[in-house]
């Protein structure tokens, strides 16, 4: 009997690579997935790949011609939604941005970008899941609920079959599925999260000057007492890991991300600590890597002057749409039109709806040219970046003749080059 093959699940950024599927079975079903992963593999699949030009079905060549013409006619094209593409397709998108003097960005919105700003300001001390699993004796989940967002994370980093004890601590504003299985839950409101970090850092600073000088409890405020308890946990660890999410995912900037990076740096003067962001933004980490390696900037890169430029979020997709600085858009999305426009602010939404669109999508959406994408890891192959920045190749479960986005983007690039 043939063994089931191993596949990678793209249901979340944990990318579990031990999913067993027998693709020869007529109604295959995945083994080792969590509920989220099972939902991912149960998505309805289209049996044929169809492309559209102005709402009418078209051959791939016709759609490529129309897309290339739209890009040639545009004075300031915008390319975005790279987080929905494989690494190979992200690389192809950047090549198009380079020759068409386009602006290119990883996602559609300005929100949730705090970790990249922190990385630029403070750098990062991080580790792979394997290192956390084999070395960490304290894992702190900071304002996140991996039992919901990355359901198999604890099983991956805290295996039950080792003798090593690993303490799980949650810091957050409410009880969650993760607090139920944690060894300890420290409750603090989201508004006080930053103040707590400031207190922890200041207590650590005095501790490193005079190693026995943690303040007496009776002269401390509530937040200082909480900080004091947290400091005791932190300095008691031989190898600690702080796994976090942005406290307010809706904001562009999040001072707690910077503060966590600073905290991890100071903890490394006393013991060993690493930080890892539990990203929930699909393949955005790979998109940041591709843009950083290709252009020198990890997001919101403008090629209008013939060379890459970046200035904070000035050239982000949302800003370009809001300020009407783009006159055509090429994007990838796995959302329906209504879900997609809901993510944009009012002004950005209006301009998005007004300009010519070239879409790579799993849904049928109103666009001048639409290329149909498959579902990554099921009927589309390609690389993705795991949350600890490790690239994993995803293969198709079902063989098909679909042309992947990277091949279509390369055809568009060749067409653009032929008309230069
Ligand atoms: S934890 Fe994430 S990657 Fe792993 S099986 Fe569940 S959804 Fe898939």
Structure explained in plain terms:
This protein is an alpha/beta fold. The protein has 3 domains: 5-41, no CATH class; 51-111 and 282-373 and 398-418, 3-Layer(aba) Sandwich (Rossmann fold), CATH 3.40.50; 114-277, 3-Layer(aba) Sandwich (Dimethylsulfoxide Reductase, domain 2), CATH 3.40.228. It is 37% helix and 17% strand. The protein contains 16 helices and 17 strands. It has helices at residues 35-41, 60-73, 87-99, 114-122, 129-135, 146-149, 153-157, 177-181, 193-209, 222-236, 255-267, 284-295, 317-322, 337-342, 346-354, 405-418, and strands spanning 5-7, 19-21, 51-53, 56-58, 77-80, 103-104, 138-142, 167-172, 184-187, 239-244, 272-277, 301-302, 328-333, 357-361, 369-372, 382-385, 391-394. An 8-stranded mixed beta sheet has the order 4-3-15-14-13-5-6-12, covered by helices on one side. A 5-stranded parallel beta sheet has the order 9-8-7-10-11. It has a two-stranded antiparallel sheet with strand order 1-2. α3 (87-99) runs parallel beside α16 (405-418). Iron/sulfur cluster binds at residues 9, 11-12, 14-16, 33-34, 36-37, 40, 150-152.
Q: State the separation between the terminal residues, measured CA to CA.
A: 56 Å
List ligands, each type once.
Answer: iron/sulfur cluster
- Envelope shape: globular
Q: Please, what is the CATH homologous superfamily of the largest domain?
A: TPP-binding domain
Count of domain modules:
3
Features:
16 helices, Dimethylsulfoxide Reductase, domain 2, 17 strands, single chain, eight-stranded mixed beta sheet, 420 residues, alpha/beta, Rossmann fold, binds iron/sulfur cluster, five-stranded parallel beta sheet
């Amino acid at each position: 009997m043939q063994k089931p093959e191993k596949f990678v699940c793209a249901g979340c950024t944990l990318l579990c690579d031990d999913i067993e599927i027998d693709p020869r079975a007529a109604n295959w079903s995945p083994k080792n997935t969590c509920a989220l992963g099972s939902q991912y593999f149960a998505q309805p699949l289209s049996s044929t790949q169809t492309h559209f030009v102005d709402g009418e079905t078209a051959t791939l060549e016709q759609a490529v011609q129309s897309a290339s013409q739209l890009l040639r006619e545009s004075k300031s094209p915008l390319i975005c939604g790279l987080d929905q593409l494989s690494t190979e397709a992200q690389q192809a998108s950047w090549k198009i941005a380079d020759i068409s003097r386009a602006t290119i960005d990883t996602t559609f919105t300005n929100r949730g970008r705090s970790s990249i700003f922190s990385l630029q300001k403070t750098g990062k001390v991080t580790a792979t899941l394997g290192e956390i699993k084999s070395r960490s004796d304290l894992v702190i989940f900071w304002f996140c609920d991996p039992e919901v967002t990355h359901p198999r994370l604890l099983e991956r980093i805290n295996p039950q079959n080792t003798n090593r004890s690993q303490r799980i601590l949650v810091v957050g504003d409410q009880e969650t599925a993760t607090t139920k299985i944690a060894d300890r839950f420290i409750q603090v409101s989201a508004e006080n999260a930053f103040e707590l970090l400031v207190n922890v850092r200041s207590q650590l600073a005095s501790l490193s000057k005079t190693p026995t000088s943690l303040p007496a409890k009776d002269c401390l405020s509530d937040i200082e007492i909480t900080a004091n308890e947290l400091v005791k946990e932190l300095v008691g660890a031989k190898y600690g890991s702080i796994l976090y999410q942005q406290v307010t995912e809706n904001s562009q900037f999040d001072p707690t991300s910077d503060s966590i990076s600073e905290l991890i740096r100071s903890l490394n003067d006393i013991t060993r600590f690493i930080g890892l962001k539990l990203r929930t933004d699909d393949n955005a980490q790979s998109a940041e890597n591709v843009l950083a390696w290709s252009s020198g900037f990890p997001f919101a890169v403008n090629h209008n002057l013939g060379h890459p430029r970046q200035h904070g979020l000035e050239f982000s997709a949302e800003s370009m749409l809001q300020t009407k600085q783009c006159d055509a858009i090429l994007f990838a999305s796995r959302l329906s039109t209504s879900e997609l426009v809901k993510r944009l602010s009012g002004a950005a939404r209006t301009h998005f709806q007004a300009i010519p669109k070239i879409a790579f999508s799993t849904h049928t959406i109103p666009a001048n040219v639409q290329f149909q994408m498959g579902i990554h890891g099921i009927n589309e192959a390609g690389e993705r970046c795991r949350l600890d920045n490790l690239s994993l190749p995803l293969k198709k479960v079902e063989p098909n003749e679909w042309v992947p986005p990277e091949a279509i983007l390369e055809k568009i690039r060749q067409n653009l080059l032929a008309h230069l």
